[in-house]
Amino acid sequence: MDTIVLKFGGSSVADNEKLKLVADKIIDLYQKNHNIVVVVSAQGKTTDKLISEAKELSEITEDREMDVLLSSGEQISSAKLSLLLNKMGYPAISLTGWQAGIYTNNTNQNALIKWIDTSRITKELEKGKIVIVAGFQGMNENIDITTLGRGGSDTTAVAISAALGAKNCYIFSDVDGVYTADPKQLKQAKKLPALSYEEMLALSSEGAKVLHNRCIEIGEKFKVPIITKSTFNNKPGTVISDIIEENTIKSIVKKEVSRISIVGNGMLRNTKSMKEILDIVERNKLDMLQFDVSESKVSITFKNQISDTILNEIHEKLITE
After folding, report:
1. Which of 177, 14, 5 is nearest to 80 (CA)?
2. Helices (H), the chain
3. pLDDT digit string, tens, across residues 205-222
4. Hey, where are the domains in the chain?
């Protein structure tokens, strides 16, 4: 029986109604004869709220104590989801990061996963249970709680997928995939069916917030296919894997106000696209401060603010149907 890992972000588990949508998606896959491991984030803005409340008590916070505090958010989500699934007639068990065997280094607030003892997860799967793991957390050699930093639940999900040899790792959120540009900035942005790990890393480093950098690095290292999908519809998502399509522009990202990056494998050899980019810069009389080229990305830093109109012009010129 195949094992698949599903991760649901904070917006997906924000309240009881959304938890019911999540439960329905889990049950649908469980009924298709899959072993199911679910990783959850804290509900909504819980983590921000806990940080704010802690700072009201003390401006100088202890990292160890903050890890104890912040890890509680994911534990609430996992316990609630387990309660709901059991009520609906589907056997489920919630596990904290340390109960799930996630061992990290000793760095609080931004720990790195060293290894995962999958015996408890495997034992529960063998009983036919849906295993729900609190994301973003683990345990160090002192048996202290550690957290993995912002976006850490993505990292938890892909790391567990690698440790279990899972068939796929699904990352569910309020967006249904990776787009050629931010759809909030450009209405004509199109969803990408697939990206390579290298391309996704380039996008993440430039500010695209679909996936956390560390989870992509783990996915690439252990060849875990990562599929980004929406919790709120059934549209196909974007598959991130080691499949590489040469010389194709995949996405354009505007970071802050003065930097634009064009991402796609083979950028170093894509002289046609490079010329088109420089033509747009010259035609619009844009002052460049820096022009960086790598195998999968061209990044341009400008002297002045870059408008969405320029982003639109580059998108229309470079993104093919």
Report:
1. 14
2. 16-30, 46-57, 63-87, 119-126, 152-164, 197-205, 213-222, 271-283, 308-318
3. 776 677 888 899 999 999
4. 3-174, 251-318
CATH architecture of 251-318: 2-Layer Sandwich (3.30)
* Residue 22, CA distances (Å) to 19, 27, 62, 78, 288 in order: 5, 9, 34, 12, 46
CA distance 7 to 29: 13
pTM of the entire structure? 0.85
Domain 3-174 has CATH 3.20.20.60: no
Residue 148: both structure tokens together: 């993995």
Percent of the chain exceeding pLDDT 70 equals 96
Give per-residue pLDDT as tens, 48-99.
999 999 999 998 999 999 999 999 999 999 999 999 999 999 999 999 999 9
* Sequence-ordered list of residues with C-beta below 8 angstroms from that of 221, at least 6 positions apart, any chain: 162
